[in-house]
Structure to design on (427 residues):
């Protein structure tokens, strides 16, 4: 029995490794398993907001995750403003979400050339964390998905239609294409 | 049997000769916790978010495992060269039992390492306004299990090196191999855009705590590596001339 110990130990190790891997896979979807639809937390937050409560029934959400300290996020604002001018219509909501206090964001905006023409939600780290977990790349474990800023995503009828991190002109073009696909 | 093994370990660790390397290990872990907290606070994280960041970064960081392995190599080398294992054999323990004892020893050191790591994280997080219980509540138990499995696998590599070639200088080639393999694997993965290079021995073990969920071939490769290492440890213990 003792002579077979390496085999028994390896067997136990592999069994635990497979279980841990299985739990990781299960945890990937755990983040939205309690909701009827993946956009439910966004709708709930919007319903609680006096100004945005009417927007909670929108069909398509174009979401921009950003921060004031993120330089590429600032570069993205004019491009997103342009997209809002072109594609905003009934049933589509452009929304910027950050984790900072409203006061800090307003102070920062006073120093900027470009102001947003789309709606904001401030101080919503939980919602931002949730949205990062929606990253459709299946290889990442839950809790270890990259949280790069800026990240843009489109949710249409409870389905992720677009998810991309980082600012580049190509990414902006892809976002525009995805918006066009959604409103077809 | 287990009670006896743990009693031996307690007596070994009560000596100041073994406490000094442990203290150095604790200092390294404290420094790495401070760096992780600093990077988290640079990302504007506070309170529970910062605790979550520290908990997840310490459960996925591979660098502390290098120090764990180095500590283990020098500890096993010390026990080999001072005749501790040979005295166990002399007083009637069989070589098969010695293998089990080494595994218990590894598990005891693994628990001790996790405890030191938690203490270091707790002390470091106090400087950033995060309390020790916040670290516990932010901990993902599945990540902890993966981290334990990773440390166990790396610990067995260290055990094999320590038993096969006992000596304090053997830490240096191991350190060099660790760095070279990390560098080569990342270079080859980028150059050939293939994930097969991640199946190198240490890179395979590192994948246990990596961002990606393990694929079936990767699980198989990791299992094979560990089985081979365990058999080599057993073989070394069976045929080694302990002095």
């Amino acid at each position: 029995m003792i002579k077979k110990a390496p085999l028994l130990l390896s067997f136990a190790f592999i069994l635990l490794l497979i279980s841990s891997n299985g739990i990781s896979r299960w945890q990937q979807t755990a983040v939205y398993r309690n909701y009827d639809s993946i956009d439910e937390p966004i709708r709930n937050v919007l319903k609680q907001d006096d100004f945005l409560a009417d927007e909670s029934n929108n069909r398509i959400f174009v979401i921009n995750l950003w921060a004031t300290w993120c330089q590429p996020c600032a570069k993205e604002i004019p491009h997103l403003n342009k997209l809002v001018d072109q594609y905003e219509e009934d049933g589509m909501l452009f929304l910027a979400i950050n984790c900072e206090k409203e006061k800090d964001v307003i102070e920062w905006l006073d120093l900027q050339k470009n102001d947003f023409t789309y709606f904001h939600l401030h101080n919503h780290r939980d919602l931002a964390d949730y949205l990062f977990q929606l990253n459709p790349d299946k290889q990442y474990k839950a809790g270890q998905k990259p949280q790069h800023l800026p990240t843009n995503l489109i949710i249409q009828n409870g389905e992720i239609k677009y998810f991309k991190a980082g600012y580049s002109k190509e990414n902006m073009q892809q976002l525009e294409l995805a918006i066009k696909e959604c409103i077809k | 049997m287990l009670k006896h093994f743990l009693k031996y370990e307690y007596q070994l660790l009560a000596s100041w000769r073994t406490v000094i390397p442990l203290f150095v290990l604790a200092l390294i872990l404290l420094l790495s916790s401070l760096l992780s907290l600093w990077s988290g606070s640079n990302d504007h994280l506070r309170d529970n978010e910062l605790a979550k960041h520290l908990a997840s970064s310490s459960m996925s960081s591979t660098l502390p495992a290098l120090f764990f392995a180095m500590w283990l190599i020098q500890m096993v080398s010390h026990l080999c060269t001072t005749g501790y294992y040979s005295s166990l054999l002399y007083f009637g323990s069989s070589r098969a039992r010695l293998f089990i004892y080494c595994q218990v020893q590894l598990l005891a050191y693994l628990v001790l390492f996790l405890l030191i790591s938690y203490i270091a994280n707790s002390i470091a997080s106090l400087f950033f306004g995060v309390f020790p219980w916040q670290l516990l509540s932010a901990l993902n138990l599945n990540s902890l299990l993966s981290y334990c499995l990773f440390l166990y696998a790396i610990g067995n590599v260290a055990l094999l090196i320590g038993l096969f070639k006992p000596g304090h200088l053997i830490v240096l080639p191991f350190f060099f191999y660790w760095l070279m393999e990390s560098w080569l694997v990342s270079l080859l993965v980028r150059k050939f855009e293939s994930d097969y290079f991640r199946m190198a021995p240490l890179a395979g073990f590192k994948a246990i705590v990596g961002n990606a969920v393990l694929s079936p071939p990767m699980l198989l490769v990791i299992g094979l590596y560990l089985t081979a290492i365990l058999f080599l440890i057993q073989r070394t213990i069976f045929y080694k001339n302990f002095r």
Q: What stands out?
A: The helical segments of chain A are 5-33, 40-48, 71-87, 102-110, 125-133, 169-183. Residues 5-33 of chain A form the longest helix (29 residues). Chain A touches chain B through 33 residues (CB under 8 Å).
